[in-house]
Amino acid sequence: EVYLEKRTFFVSHYFSIADIAIWSGLAGTGQRWESIRKSNKYPNLVRWYNSISAEYSNPLMEVTALYVGKKGLGKPVAAKSKEVKNVTGDSSDKAKAGSRSSSEIDLPDAEMGKVWLRFAPEPSGFLHIGHAKAALLNQYFAQRYHGEVILRFDDTNPTKESNEFVENLIKDVETLGIKYQKITYTSDYFSKLMALAEKLIKEGKAYVDDTPREQMQKERMDGIESKCRSNSVEENLKLWKEMIAGSERGLQCCLRGKLDMQDPNKSLRDPVYYRCNPVPHHRIGSKYKIYPTYDFACPFVDAEEGITHALRSSEYHDRNAQYHRIQEDMGMRKVHIYEFSRLNMVYTLLSKRKLLWFVQNGKVDGWDDPRFPTVQGIVRRGLKIEALIQFILEQGASKNLNLMEWDKLWTLNKKIIDPVCPRHTAVIEERRLLLTLTNGPDKPFVRIIPRHKKYDGAGEKATTYTKRIWLDYADAECISVDEEVTLMDWGNAIVKEIIKDQDGNITQLVGVLHLEGSVKTTKLKLTWLAETNELVNLSLVEFDYLITKKKVLS
Q1: 259, 301, 336, 362: which has the fewest Cβ within 10 Å?
Q2: How far apart are CA 313 and CA 477, in angstroms?
Q3: How far apart are CA 5 and CA 244, in angstroms?
Q4: pLDDT at res. 71
Q5: pLDDT at 77 over 90
Q6: Closest alpha carbon to 301 in 276, 269, 326
Q7: Which helix (H) or strand (E) holds 324?
Q8: Which of 299, 199, 202, 197 is nearest to 253 (CA)?
Q9: Pfam families from the xrefs (predicted)?
């Protein structure tokens, strides 16, 4: 019961043979399990049982059919019929049901128990669902190979980073259920990175360049070597010390790797290793005036921390050669790179820099705005983390680029919450109207009814019954004179009179209760509210997209 409190499945984040086995044991006890279900002692277990009974009925029905009449088993409780694809067959097929794409892909040269991975966000914003994909895939492969995940903050740009972002990223990672072995920071390795940079200068593998930024970018694009590329080691070391001091001369310079300015892969055309930045670091203050670039720091820290496989989105594909070349020049152990496709959603920006613009310009309430694609935003909007995990793992580590619809994610969410979500009733205040039941109760009375007809764990609610009840105007428009309708959680009624104003708008209805009528014979099933002074005003907020273009180019 406690184990299932925050879980959808028994093993990992998808339906497996473990769920089938436990469901079978419960269903096989027949009425004994039915008694337990109705006792309200195990709401989490009942919620899990109801959920998988609805979603995975086909394989569960097979189990039921297989064991009917076996010794020791009572009359089984059958799952409700619902078509579920790709879940039948042997145990290997069942394991693929929740994560087919992921389970078909192997990490290169991975050894069981020896896989180390890292999730390394930059603390310059909150976690969005694109980061969530990277985090969950790292956890998936760590669990698959009995390995470990390190949570590392790539804090190499003090201009954009803050402790607030670090704290919220940790919060978001824990919301996703990521189990990390430890937290590290790239800034933990700044002194080693500086020493390594100086070593590369002395070996002639790096040089200090004072070329203006725009000119440097053009020269890299055109394959033109910088005038500083032929500087002596002594001149480079002199300028390097100016950079470390943050002097006026040093601020004009950057450190570049001496790779290959004619390589067709432009990422190998002498990338920048270090640049000056006088802004204090959120973690270590003003100790340094220079900071390594991601391209320089990542290959070193990955190797230094014992990472065996670095998962990177395919947008970094052209920089993979650079990553390995820098590791080679450093004399570091080679780390395997495994690519997966970047997550792209319709009408959505998945860039922390661009999302920050919305925050800074007051277009949203904050990083947890329900319209934002951040983990905190979509959770605040009502998404269950189980749905996000299932959505990500169904895509797997595929390299295929897809533009995903939000509808699929919210459909998964509905499947998770629908079997267990308490039901309450509301009517739209504007243009609501009264139905007077002439034979209705003279005095209001209260009846206790379930919040969910099929899930006892949702509890109960008090419903008031009165002679006059509120209906939505849209429902009233569908009713004809003398039509029998069903009032939900009450019974049938016959509408005898529809009163309209001079413009033809319905102003009120008059009818009689017909509680002996069958709900099976009525076309309209109406929600309603009693006319009392105890009704609570609610605000219904409908969220639209923040941007109007379906496909947004980077």
Answers
A1: 362
A2: 53
A3: 53
A4: 40
A5: no
A6: 326
A7: helix 320-330
A8: 197
A9: tRNA-synt_1c, tRNA-synt_1c_C
Given a contact cutoff of 8 angstroms between Cβ atoms, the answer to whether 392 and 132 are in contact is yes
Q: Spot the catalytic one: 37, 55, 122, 148.
A: 122
Under DSSP, is residue 339 helix (H, G, I), strand (E, B) or coil? strand
Nearest to 263 by CA among 220, 302, 233: 220
Q: What is the CA radius of gyration of the chain?
A: 31
* Torsion region of 153: left, alpha or beta (phi above 0 gives left; psi -120 to 50 gives alpha): beta
Q: For residues 342 and 131, give the distance between their C-alpha atoms in angstroms, rounded to a whole number.
A: 9
Cβ atoms within 10 A of the Cβ of 241, count? 14
Strands 484-487 and 491-500: antiparallel
Q: Are 257 and 329 in contact (CB under 8 A)?
A: yes
pLDDT tens digit sequence for 192-209: 999 999 999 999 999 999
Distance between CA 253 and CA 274 in Å, rounded?
Answer: 9
Residue 151, φ and ψ in degrees, nearest 5: -95, 110
For residues 357 and 149, is the Cβ–Cβ distance under 8 A? no
Give the Cα separation of 133 and 273 in Å (integer). 28
Is 203 labeled as catalytic in the residue annotation? no
Q: Is 514 helix (H, G, I), strand (E, B) or coil?
A: coil
Classified as helix, coil or strand, 468 is strand
CA 500: distance to chain centroid? 49
Of 96, 144, 152, 342, catalytic:
342
127 close to 374: Cβ distance less than 8 angstroms:
yes
DSSP characters for 196-219?
A: HHHHHHHTTSEEEE---HHHHHHH
Across residues 1-30, what is the average pLDDT?
81
Burial of 533 (0-12, 13-18, 19+ CB in 10 A): exposed
CA 63, 68, 73 angle in degrees (round to 5)?
A: 100
Domains of the chain with bracketed CATH: 2-68 (no CATH), 188-295 (3.90.800.10), 432-530 (2.40.240.10)
**What secondary structure letter does DSSP report for 226?**
P
Q: Which residue has the tokens 């949702």?
A: 458
Widest distance between CA atoms in the chain: 102
More confident call, 455 vs 206: 206
Strand 148-153 to strand 116-119: parallel, antiparallel, or no bridges (unpaired)?
Answer: parallel
287 catalytically annotated: no
Contacts of 90 (CB under 8 A, 6+ apart): none
Q: Is the distance from CB of 247 to CB of 205 less than 8 angstroms?
A: no
> Is 208 in contact with 254 (CB distance < 8 Å)?
yes
518 membership: H or E segment, kind and range = none
**Which residue among the candidates 152, 258, 312, 352 is catalytic per the annotation?**
352
Report which secondary-structure segment, H or E, holds 289: none
Neighbour count for residue 312 (Cβ, 10 Å): 18
Distance CA 327, CA 185 (A): 19
